[in-house]
Amino acid sequence: MDRSSAGQFDIPQEMRAFAEKSVEQARHAFESFISTAHQTINAFGDQAETTRQGAKDMGQQVMTFAERNIATSFEFAQQLVRARDVNEMVKLQSDYITAQIKTLSEQAKELSESTTKLARDGTRAKS
């Protein structure tokens, strides 16, 4: 081992291929789940129009958040699989966690605002 590769490790090509294949299979499974979830959300039915539309909008918002979060997770997984050393893996993990905390906080705020609006609109529709 020469000095330039000290601190680096080699992931066997078979393991790297297996990891990439696993990530891709998980991505396909998730896409199938999302498709089914979209069909379910679109099938919402017999409530009052204001409540129904609000629930559908909220469902779409949740699905959009979920899709973004999962896509980000897959991107992170791909980056980890391609990491050259432990230091790079630690930095990727740290960056990912920091970004996810910020994203989830923003999403929670948006959902709270949407829920409040939906409740307010639903109450007005019943009056």
Question: Keyphrases for this structure?
Answer:
127 residues, mainly alpha, 3 helices, 0% strand, elongated
Task: Describe what is shown at a glance.
With 127 residues, the chain is an all-alpha fold.
Topology:
Blueprint: H1 13-42, H2 49-81, H3 86-126
Helix pairs in contact: 1-2, 2-3
Structure, described:
There is one protein chain. This protein has 127 residues and is mainly alpha-helical. Helices cover 82% and strands 0% of the residues. It has 3 helices and no strands. Helix 1 packs antiparallel against helix 2 and helix 2 (49-81) packs antiparallel against helix 3 (86-126). The longest helix is centred in the C-terminal third of the chain and has 41 residues, at 86-126. The protein starts with 12 loop residues before the first helix and ends with a helix. The mean pLDDT is 81.
